[in-house]
Amino acid sequence: MNIHIFRYADALLLLAEADIQTGNLEAARAIVNQIRARAGQVAQGCGFPGDSASAANEAAAYPSCVGVAGFTVPLVQNATLDSVSTPWAIYRIGLYPGPWTDAATAMQAVKWERRLELAMEGQRFFDLRRWGDADTSIANYISIEKNRIPYLAGITFAARNHLYPIPEIQIELSKVGSTDMLVQNPGW
Whole-angstrom Cα distance, residue 156 to residue 135? Predict the structure, then answer.
């Protein structure tokens, strides 16, 4: 018996994608804001601007953090780590304040949220394939990283990589008489 475990945030972000596809942009924004509100409860500190321009932008966006190294009240109450005295986040997690007016902008926000929320959980490749962004994103990654990671030299992401190969045993088991009912995916 196989048990498939889905993270609640993953299911919500998939629902947000579906809402965007059906034109329900405000429902998608509400879902993304729900996830960002939860994530913001464990973020700590007011951030650390790297230069004067960043500090000015931060002051405009977050006036309550001007001159403050940490929030005045820990975000995580009764925790072993005091977020006022030990800030560790160098970014802010805010909500999307205004309505999403077009599907392209909304979809970009959901893509970004999936990238952040599900980082290192093995979802990115499948997201890129589903969105049709795999060819460009993976080719860009390989072109940069092949200079840093020797085994990537000569690697390409080809059209065949959009589908997995069908195991040969499954093709053999699909035979009816001498006819294969399953045909191997192109390129494999």
Answer: 10
pLDDT reported for residue 45: 53
pLDDT value, residue 179: 92
Instruction: Extract long-range pairs of 6-10: CB within 8 Å, 24+ residues apart.
Output: 7/118, 7/121, 9/35, 9/38, 9/117, 9/118, 10/114, 10/117, 10/118, 10/121, 10/123
> Token digits for 171?
């093709």
At 102-131, the pLDDT tens digits run 999 999 999 999 998 999 999 999 999 999
The chain-wide mean pLDDT, for the chain, equals 82
Nearest Cα to 29, choosing from 92, 107, 88? 107
Q: For tokens 């589903």, what's the residue?
A: 130
Sign (positive or negative) of CA dihedral 38, 44, 46, 50: negative
Look up the pTM and report it.
0.68
